[in-house]
Amino acid sequence: MKFDLALTNGDIVFPGEGVSRGSIGIVNGRIAAILDPSEQVEAGRVIDCTDRWILPGVIDPHTHIGFGDKENDWTTETATAALGGVTGLMSFWRSDDLDATTAPWIAEGEARSSVDFGLHFGVTSSRHVEELQALSKRYGVSSIKVYLMYKGATGAAKGFTEVDDALLFRAMQAGARVKNGVVSVHCENTEVIPVFREPLKAAGRDDLQAWDEQSPGFLETENVFRVAFFGEKTGCPVNIVHMSAVESLELVRKLRHAGRPPIHVETCIHYLSLTADSGIGSIGKVNPPLRSQADVDGLWEGVRNGEITTIGSDHVARKRATKGPDIWTATAGFPGLAQIVPVLVEEGYHKRGIPIETLAATTSRNVADLYSLPNKGRIAPGFDADFAVVDPAGSTTVNAADFPSHSDYSPFEGMTFRGAVTHTVLRGTLTVDAGKAVPLDSAPGQYLKRLP
Predict the structure, then answer these.
(1) Sorting pLDDT into bands at 50, 70 and 90, what band is 314?
(2) Which end of the chain is more exposed for a tag (fewer CB within 10 A), N or C?
(3) What CA–CA distances, in Å, run from 320 to 42, 323, 406?
């Protein structure tokens, strides 16, 4: 059989299962065959993957497309993603009127995205809760997010006046009625933050450690309990997104038990590699804050043993100029889409000996399972031919100028990681070849509509 494309003689990484030497044949954008390395392969294009991993394409579960340069983010950020081995992403979509704005936003993505993409709805009002079931069916969105950090004065400053515990509980009631529904929550008790913030500001503190101290990890953990408890009472699966504190993970261990709805945990690459002591100043401001090395190490153990389900970037493409002039006025968040693979390979595989198949599961199979993404996240015949080919002996030095992102900086700037993405394949289309973007006649990304 002649294939359209073949990846040969590579170490195929089956997420959560193992690694096996072999070749992969692709026809019409799908995996057609997995072959023994001794078998001869005929294809329109053959890529020799000797001494390289063939990973399932990364699906970033946590991005904010449109939060940087809304007019161009679908183009710049997804092109950046592809260079990092990302073939799919989930982005949070917020709007007062979700029904009126979702279809145009999806159309923008389909016209310009270099990767496949799905949406999470941001729930910030009673209207969103009331419309959720209908909107879920109409647009194929089975996942939502509630922002506990937007309660009270913090939310009012951003125009959100309805975020409270009642909205959280009602959102979970509604999420439990959505097929394959999951409610993600930003856990951070902003009502207590001023108790710590005001003395720090009065003392003239303007350092990254102060951002951690003004919202200590236990304020995340307190919210985790509330979310998990409400999830149990409403029968709704919950997902603790961007977990930053090991104390939060310890609590989840205690709360998980047979017979209750799942408590999923997501963390992000910066909570696995950076700390409040990293010396990067205000560009490291993010919510929740960067924590301690003990938190980094504890979260890695959660990755190792499968307690942490997914890993993302929390990518937002703002400019360096927005990260100041001091820690209190700097914007929160930073880019990271292209650094997922390098961080996981360096910090997880090389430094901590976590099997590559375990790491791959957090960025492919587990994401596809959690968010009901059809034909994604696995290397098996019939699945979409989405791959990241990685040279584990290569290296990646982060330079923001190497990417088309709207962002002009990186919290990882100048850092060198072992491991390098050499090729990215999206549904059989080569989007990155030998580390360089492949010019294409049209944007190859498609919308990932979850079936109602």
Answers:
(1) very high
(2) N
(3) 48, 6, 10
